[in-house]
Amino acid sequence: MSKHVIIIGGGVIGLSAAEACLKRGHRVTVVDRQPQQRSGCSFGNAGMVVPSHFIPLAAPGMVALGFKWMWNPESPFYIKPRFDLDLVSWGIKFMQAATRSHVEAASPLLRDLNLASRELYLQYAAEGEDFGLVTKGLLMLCKTQHGLDEEAAVAAKANALGVPAEVLDAAGTAKVDPTITMDVAGSVWFPKDCHMAPEKFIAVLERRILAAGGTFRWNTEVTGWKKEGGRLRAIQTPAGELEADEFVLCGGAWSDDLVRDLGLKIPMQAGKGYSLTNPNPVELPTLCSVLTEARVAVTPMGNSLRVGGTMEISGKQEKIEPRRVAGILKALPDYFPKFKPSDFDGIKPWQGFRPCSPDGMPYLGRTRAASNLTVATGHSMMGLSLGPETGRLAAVLVDREKTEHDLAMLSPDRYA
Ligand SMILES: Cc1cc2nc3c(=O)[nH]c(=O)nc-3n(C[C@H](O)[C@H](O)[C@H](O)COP(=O)(O)OP(=O)(O)OC[C@H]3O[C@@H](n4cnc5c(N)ncnc54)[C@H](O)[C@@H]3O)c2cc1C
């Protein structure tokens, strides 16, 4: 039966959910507080589809690394110490989740969701959509032998999980991508990974939603809920109430604030990251890559080159921290010696807030807080990669059907 579904949030998750609900015959309204010409986390990201990322952020070693990097203003991971009970509680939960057993339980699910999403991206491309999809894989570039040994251990786990990964020396790496000069000890090549231009993919989704009869309400902030019995009747906005049969929350890093009044606790911190896009790079790789020791992502997008990185847990202040941007640019010539940080002079850094749950896993499922609310958020560093499959699953949940994957680990009620 066709229902009216309100999707809160017009990022990659919300738009993917909207398209999937329309495909199932529902009437869909996407509500976003920003104008259509917006620039959120789903736009300036590194554009990678990453079956290689089957290890959640909350993993052994990350806590120690976080403490080590806290004191370095150019480091790629930073938690700004501040008195904030939400942050303290999030940090404790992160530490509790950063265990081997959590990673072992999470990896097969992340693999399955990423691979399923990759298939959906291939489908979009097969339908003739042009969003710059390149399916040649990703190189985890290692400057040092120690780094390569560590990545080789991840590659062994990947192969055991059925995600193909090949360990390459410097010459082997150059053979996989001969279009760029590299100075590395070696790499791990994940041939199933892909990259694209995320802004183009968002435009594709918006066009498809409109063509399928979906409606957008831009500049419309959701400020509250109207609940009757155990069900939501409407969302409140400055323009009045909007009623629907089903609601899907895809509010990115703001999602936790949005559901607080419903008594739903989905702990979330904004993980700020930056990117810079050079329209005229001195060289252009064919594959996307991660500079592993520096945690910097490098992606060719058409003739441009985007570099991005840092995970700054410092609240939701839209302030660009020049030292962290400098840290990203300084790393580039270490791996790609033809580049200089000054190649990016005059290019305005973009920033985005990754929606980070403490256990590094998305929130995807129905909730006890309201019987007609589905939550789809908290994808941290993998929201673009997991977008289409998350959207498809959200639509399955809207229809109260059984999902193919066991989503118990992703329950929005897991911290209730
Ligand atoms: C530097 C960087 C590089 C990245 N690289 C990659 C990558 O290569 N691959 C990958 O998979 N992921 C990557 N990510 C992560 C990815 O960008 C995010 O996971 C993803 O964009 C999150 O999408 P979202 O739809 O959940 O959130 P968002 O894109 O933030 O969308 C949420 C929307 O909700 C709206 N909203 C919030 N509150 C309200 C309200 N009260 N009322 C109405 N609307 C509201 C906002 O306006 C916003 O439009 C990267 C992130 C960064 C920062």
TrEMBL record:
It holds the Pfam family DAO. The keyword Metal-binding does not apply. GO terms for cellular component: cytoplasm. Keywords: Oxidoreductase. Residues 4-395 form the FAD dependent oxidoreductase domain. InterPro entries: FAD-dep_OxRdtase, FAD/NAD-bd_sf. Coiled coil: none annotated. GO terms for molecular function: oxidoreductase activity. This is FAD-dependent oxidoreductase. It comes from Luteolibacter ambystomatis.
